[in-house]
């Protein structure tokens, strides 16, 4: 049976990426490729992540585990978000001083019109 080559990427923490080239039979699914990598057995954190409903994708798009892989696909295993992006953005905004100190109003000249930065 013919084999295809795919790339498995996983980031256990920020700014750290582990990658592994896999050769799997043509017609393999995402789940089969991850299982074939042996990472589920080797890396307890990886297995926990998948068990907790960790999402997987191909080339940056979330896909179900039954997705059939093509040669050259890049499998990505995503960690769960630690903070809701909307909440993080709101907290950053508040730390910066709110609307008077950010965006169009950040560098307002004395006597300048609001919203024009001048």
Describe the fold and architecture:
It is elongated, with a radius of gyration of 22 Å. It has four helices and five strands. The mean pLDDT is 78. Helices cover 26% and strands 27% of the residues. A five-stranded mixed β-sheet has the order 2-1-5-3-4, with helices on one face. It has two domains: 76 residues, Ubiquitin-like (UB roll), CATH 3.10.20.30; 28 residues, no CATH class. The chain starts with a strand and ends in a 23-residue tail after the last helix.
Report the CATH superfamily of the largest domain. Beta-grasp domain
- Apparent shape: elongated
End-to-end C-alpha gap: 68 Å
Unreliable spans? none
Average predicted local confidence, pLDDT: 78
Q: How does CATH name the architecture of the largest domain? A: Roll
Count of DSSP E strands?
A: 5
What helical percentage do the residues reach? 25-40%
Which CATH first-tier class of the largest domain would you pick? Alpha Beta
How many individual domains? 2
Secondary-structure element string: EEHHHEEEH
In CATH terms, what is the fold-level topology of the largest domain?
A: Ubiquitin-like (UB roll)
Relevant terms:
single chain; 4 helices; alpha+beta; 5-stranded mixed β-sheet; Ubiquitin-like (UB roll); 118 residues
Q: Would you spell out the secondary-structure blueprint of this structure?
A:
Layout: E1 3-13, E2 16-25, H1 30-37, H2 39-42, H3 44-51, E3 55-58, E4 61-62, E5 74-78, H4 85-95
Parallel strand pairs: 1-5
Antiparallel strand pairs: 1-2, 3-4, 3-5
Short description:
This protein is 26% helix and 27% strand. It is an alpha+beta fold and 118 residues long. The protein has 2 domains: 3-78, Beta-grasp domain (Ubiquitin-like (UB roll), Roll), CATH 3.10.20.30; 82-109, no CATH class.
